[in-house]
Design goal:
16% of the residues lie in helices and 15% in strands. By secondary structure, it is of the alpha/beta class. 26% of the residues are buried.
């Protein structure tokens, strides 16, 4: 095959790819124009994730036969045109994950045949229009992850066919309308991460509700005792963390037989955990930390076969935490993530009794028993399998915990003092050795002239005491290894007194003994040095 044929084929392939890319990157207006050429034949626009750009043209209102519009996950920007209200046949309008801006047009309420309105993950502002309640055919409304503000209109309760309502991650606020209980087919309600306040109990009366998420709002009030009497038997997940709910956890919560996820952490709940939680056989997650709950952990939690996440407290947090006490149910170790509280701070020790008088001993009375039972400690059972139990030594008494424990600051201070003492001892030893090298070793060494002066003073009037033979400097020490008298160093060494001497003023004899320093030169003038006595007389 010639090379020019191969190159021509490659060029044709590249041109086709460019044309496909151009069609793929075509603006939305061109797609609408293509549909406008045959209005009756254009019933659907499906361009999800096709890199469609541009804005939604106002000419889209001419496509009266258009039934579905799926153009999500693109880069479409601009506002929603008001001409959308002319699409009488429209049943689904999904433009999620784009860059839409502006407000929701009130003309959407004119689409009585609309079933799905999916506009999440955009930049829509403004409020939810009241006219939206006139689109009585709506079943799915997904407007989460936008910038919507204002309050939730009560007209939403007119959408009796509504099954999914998602408004999370917006800026909506105000009280939740009580008319929401009229949504008799609602199964999923997500209002999380907004600024709703006021009561929430009426939401628990929506009978078919399966998923209720009000996480991260400012809802107040108590959990109703008859939580299960309204027919919430289908509720599978209830997420109500980070609100301002108060009161206790009612015992009726045990009748929510289908409940799988219960997250009530970081509220203002108090009281104890009801033992009826052990009746939730399908429960998988239980989060109640960050509150004022107390008491013992119900042993019935150990009987839940599917419980995998159980967080009872936040030991590493400065917020208010629970104060559970008592032994931990042994079989609850099957939880994959288990957090139980640390011991509460120990009570201050009682004052010491006065010291008894000397000579008497009065035994101190025994310390009264602690009013608190042993407190749970932190236990981590990550990836625990089987029926492993926690040993009893994992618990300890509240009063002994504060007395026997040593704080980290005290340990650091003790270690610092020990190091300073060690360095001080080493410095003293080093200075001692340095001084020992500079001071002459005993016996004391002095110059010859000093010896003579001292000997003259001791002998009285300049007469020297006789030197013993073994200490005299005669010919026995003469020779080439004997130093000269002018260069010699002398040593004082007192005689030991006689055993039978008893006088206090006994005079001790001074011995002048040369050190054995042997200079290289020999005796001067070829002869030995005269005795010390003759040299003194000669002078």
């Amino acid at each position: 095959r010639p090379s020019w044929v191969a190159s021509a084929a490659a060029e044709r392939q590249d041109a086709a790819a460019v044309r496909r890319q151009a069609r793929r990157m075509a603006p939305l207006s061109s797609i609408v124009d293509d549909c406008a050429r045959d209005v009756s034949a254009c019933t659907s626009i499906d361009a999800v994730g096709k890199d469609v750009t541009g804005t939604i043209p106002s000419d889209i209102g001419l496509l009266t036969a258009l039934g579905t519009v799926y153009i999500g996950e693109n880069t479409i920007s601009g506002p929603l045109p008001t001409e959308l209200g002319q699409l009488s046949s429209l049943s689904a309008f999904a433009v999620q994950a784009n860059q839409l801006s502006g407000t929701l047009p009130t003309e959407l309420g004119e689409l009585v045949g609309l079933r799905q309105l999916v506009l999440f993950s955009n930049e829509l502002k403004g409020s939810v229009p009241r006219e939206l309640g006139q689109a009585i055919g709506l079943r799915v409304i997904e407007l989460h992850d936008n910038l919507l503000s204002g309050t939730l209109p009560t007209d939403i309760s007119s959408l009796t066919q509504l099954t999914v309502l998602k408004l999370s991650h917006n800026r909506l606020g105000g009280p939740l309308p009580t008319s929401l209980t009229a949504l008799s087919l609602l199964k999923r309600l997500d209002l999380s991460r907004n600024k709703f306040d006021g009561a929430f109990a009426h939401l628990l009366r929506i009978a078919p509700l399966e998923h209720l998420d009000v996480y991260g709002n400012m809802l107040t009030g108590r959990i109703p005792d008859d939580i299960a009497s309204a027919g919430l038997g289908a509720l599978r997940s209830w997420l109500a963390a980070e609100n301002k709910m108060s009161g206790t956890i009612p015992t009726g919560i045990g009748r929510l037989s289908e409940l799988r996820v219960l997250r009530l952490q970081r509220n203002r709940l108090s009281g104890t955990l009801p033992t009826e939680l052990g009746e939730l056989s399908n429960l998988q997650e239980l989060l109640v930390h960050g509150q004022s709950l107390w008491g013992t952990v119900p042993s019935a939690l150990a009987d839940l076969p599917q419980l995998s996440v159980c967080e009872l407290t936040e030991p590493a947090s400065d917020q208010v935490t629970n104060a559970f006490r008592g032994p931990l149910p042994p079989d609850i170790g099957d939880c994959r993530v288990l957090l139980v509280p640390r011991a509460p701070p120990a009570e201050p020790p009682p004052p010491l009794p006065p010291a008894p008088d000397e000579g008497s001993f009065t035994p101190s009375p025994p310390a009264p028993p602690s009013p608190f039972p042993p407190t749970l400690t932190i236990v981590s059972t990550a990836n625990v399998t089987g029926n492993e139990t926690f040993p009893e030594e994992d618990t300890y008494n509240v009063t002994s915990a504060g007395r026997e424990g040593i704080s980290d600051a005290a340990m650091v201070a003790s270690l610092s003092i020990a190091i300073l003492l060690l360095f001080g001892c080493c410095a003293v030893l080093w200075l001692g050795r340095l001084v020992a090298k500079r001071v002459p070793a005993s016996p004391l060494q002095v110059a010859p002239r000093t010896i003579k002066v001292l000997a003259r003073a001791i002998g009285g009037g300049g007469h020297e005491r006789p030197v013993p033979a073994e200490a005299s400097t005669t010919d026995d020490h003469s020779g080439p290894d004997t130093p000269s008298r002018s260069e010699a160093w002398w040593t004082f060494q007192p005689f030991a007194p006689e055993d039978n001497a008893a006088q206090d003023d006994q005079v001790r004899t001074v011995i002048a003994r040369p050190r054995h320093r042997r200079p290289s030169g020999g005796p001067r003038n070829g002869r030995t040095s005269p005795p010390l006595s003759e040299r003194s007389n000669r002078k």
